[in-house]
Design brief:
Distance between the termini: 79 Å
CATH architecture of the largest domain: 3-Layer(aba) Sandwich
Order of helices and strands: HEHEHEHEHHEHEHEHEH
Bound molecules: zinc ion
Amino acid sequence: MNKIMLNILMIALLLPTNIFPSTKLKVVTATADLADFVRVIGMDKVEVVSLTSGNQDPHFIEPRPSMVMKVKNADMLVRLGMDLDIWMQSLIDASRNSKVSYGGVGYVDVSGKIDKLEVPTGKVDASMGDIHIFGNPHYWLDPENAKPILETILKKLCYQLPSETEYFQKNYKEYLQKLDSAIVVWKKKMEPYSGEKIVTYHNSWPYFAKRFGLSLVGFVEPKPGIPPTPSHIVSLIEKIKREKVKVIVMEPYFILKVAETIAEQSRSKVIVLSPSVGGIEGIKTYLDLFDYNINKLVESLKN
Ligand SMILES: [Zn+2]
């Protein structure tokens, strides 16, 4: 060993250990909700980064070079699947990271164990709008669906870091308890509004509506992903009046003006709910997400 090498080695040995590359499992997720799930199970054994935030429309994410780098450096990639995060494919391809490519040790699609709604039965074509051939992909908006998602993530984390299996299982069980008691509270709050009819901007809320006993009677978009036309708006206003709909639910990234015009002319009101963690300020976790959305809904339905 020459002198320079020896010096480098000596310096390295004297430095604090935290300057060395992290030994944490690097996880990249499609959404901030999935990042929260990975965090609650993986805790300090993982380093999680979400490629999107809840204030972005998850159907239309523009892949960026910085995202490719995140995927390139990841040991594990967690996606929603069902074609919602189809934009992730170009990132995976560009990253050339075989670990997180389909079939790789770190590739996770959490939609596998979900009971899917609105799976098309007949032929699907472009005239139907942005239709998802595997069914409606907004399944994380039913908090019961968090369970199969968490289970899938748990399995993969244990597979990747087998020595931490017990730790991950303990965190998973503790979180499930918290989630279960939160679901009881949310359901209780929503109980008085069972059967209430609502209109939503995009068809993002069927899983949520089903869980909490709401009835979806119409959408501001005539078809998923298609902006409203004047004739559709006219018929929707009539429908809202006829069905006595009190609220129109929209996500933060849609145009408020359109929904407000419909609300004004139909004597209903618009509420902005968050589809994911980070969609509205202060929503930092999946539990925050439902706390916020349920409280907001209850507040608008009771008047
Ligand atoms: Zn959608």
